[in-house]
Amino acid sequence: MRHKHQSLAGNVILLTGATRGIGRAMCDRLVAEGARVLAVASNADALERLRAEFGDAVVAMPCDLDDPQARAELVAQVKDEVPRLDGLINNAGIQIEMRFFAPQHPQIAAMIAREIEINLVAPTELIAGLLPQLGASGSGFVVNVTTGLAIFPKQASPVYCATKAGLRSLTQSLRYQAMAEGGQVFVSEAIMSLVDTEMTQGRGRGKISPERAAGEIVAGLKARKPEIWIGKAKLLRVLARVVPGVAARILR
């Protein structure tokens, strides 16, 4: 029987997008909770600074998540070098604004592919590759970071919204499978509101800090919540049930 609240002390947790925004704040919080973080990001220099700051509490694992070969090598590295893996937090993501009813950017196909690879394909492959290790720990978990835009998409970022909707659906299906297998792996989705990060510069108002977002994710994970609604997304959850048309207009 799983305790309602579970400590993260001593856990080994792989965190993608660990050097910026929500991921950087989450790395701080996880280390403060006593976890060891396998920090994944594309910027090797930023990872080295993170490792220098936290010492043995952080293991730097450079990886370009839009590169299939790099993802395969990351999974192989974790299998070979990490005896125990307790958690996977799929946090990394990019958002590209694009208009299909406009003159096409010459690199639009590459932009679309990169957004889908990082936001959807990468977390799916990491889950598939690392699930045996997560299950072996006896208390493993997966947290996928999505957004309210997975439920009510906005006009400016169609591919981003589609990838996050896909990740939300994947999370739900994975949760059903985990339950059918006896619940050895806990599966959760963190549904973000607008957070003040580099990705959201110049977009929207009423943003919350990355530190607050990270704190709510970790608190929800420790409480074993299958859905962790962050910040104003809690209000969205209510609006989606009561007046979905209003919620759709707000986020559009």
| N- and C-termini, Cα separation | 42 Å
**SSE class:** alpha/beta
Order of helices and strands: EHEHEHEHEHEHEHH
Radius of gyration: 18 Å
- Give helix % range: 40-55%
Largest sheet strand order: 3-2-1-4-5-6-7
Shape: globular
How many beta-strand runs?
7
Mean pLDDT: 89
The low-confidence parts are none
**How many H/I helical runs?**
8
Strand content: 15-25%
Major beta-sheet overview: 7 strands, parallel
Provide keyphrases for this structure.
single chain, alpha/beta, 7-stranded parallel sheet, 252 residues
What does this structure look like?
- This protein has 252 residues and is an alpha/beta fold.
- The protein has eight helices and seven strands; from the N terminus they run E-H-E-H-E-H-E-H-E-H-E-H-E-H-H.
- The protein has helices at 21-32, 44-54, 68-81, 108-136, 158-180, 210-222, 233-242, 244-251, and strands at 12-16, 36-41, 58-62, 87-90, 140-147, 185-192, 227-229.
- Strands 3-2-1-4-5-6-7 form a seven-stranded parallel β-sheet, with helices on both faces.
- Strand 4, helix 4 and strand 5 (140-147) form a beta-alpha-beta unit.
